[in-house]
Amino acid sequence: MSRSPFPLSRVYGLLEPGPVLLLSTAHQGRANVMTLSWHTMMEFEPPLVGCVVSDRDFSFAALKATRQCVLNIPTVELAQKVVDCGNCSGRDTDKFATLGLTPLPAEQVAAPLVAECYASLECRVVDTRLVNRYGFFVLEVVQAWLDADRKDPRTLHHRGYGAFMQAGETIQLPSKMR
């Protein structure tokens, strides 16, 4: 096996573990949605998710002010809308209208669910200690929604620089974990 140097600026594409998300917020009467791939599970019960939102993103101020959002999980059928969402700013674009996404009322937070997504996780910010330094928010999932009619959903996984993978075949192996 041969090894060659790999650019440090592309390491995240090797480690990206989870699906690309659409993070939705609502602030000052305005709903917004952004593409997010920098997130990680932190705890199982209650479910805690860490995510990085840059202070350059329009959603950052809304998330910091309201301390609420929805993590929406799109499938490959929404791939182009996911990319388009990430390529424009909520500062000057109503992304829901422009991209043909449908906001639905959430049950426990003010931010909307995205109807076209396979699953939606209503979240509250529970830790902001790393926000100012890294843009890292710790979210607690307070309500989860799943479209049970979608069998074998294929999620998108960002590899960097416009490259994506889709989730593949599910395999089941013996495990003591439940």
Automatic annotation (TrEMBL):
<dbReference type="InterPro" id="IPR002563">
    <property type="entry name" value="Flavin_Rdtase-like_dom"/>
</dbReference>
<comment type="similarity">
    <text>Belongs to the flavoredoxin family.</text>
</comment>
<protein>
    <submittedName>
        <fullName>Flavin reductase family protein</fullName>
    </submittedName>
</protein>
<dbReference type="InterPro" id="IPR052174">
    <property type="entry name" value="Flavoredoxin"/>
</dbReference>
<dbReference type="GO" id="GO:0010181">
    <property type="term" value="F:FMN binding"/>
</dbReference>
<feature type="domain" description="Flavin reductase like">
    <location>
        <begin position="13"/>
        <end position="163"/>
    </location>
</feature>
<keyword id="KW-0285">Flavoprotein</keyword>
<dbReference type="Pfam" id="PF01613">
    <property type="entry name" value="Flavin_Reduct"/>
</dbReference>
<dbReference type="InterPro" id="IPR012349">
    <property type="entry name" value="Split_barrel_FMN-bd"/>
</dbReference>
<dbReference type="GO" id="GO:0016646">
    <property type="term" value="F:oxidoreductase activity, acting on the CH-NH group of donors, NAD or NADP as acceptor"/>
</dbReference>
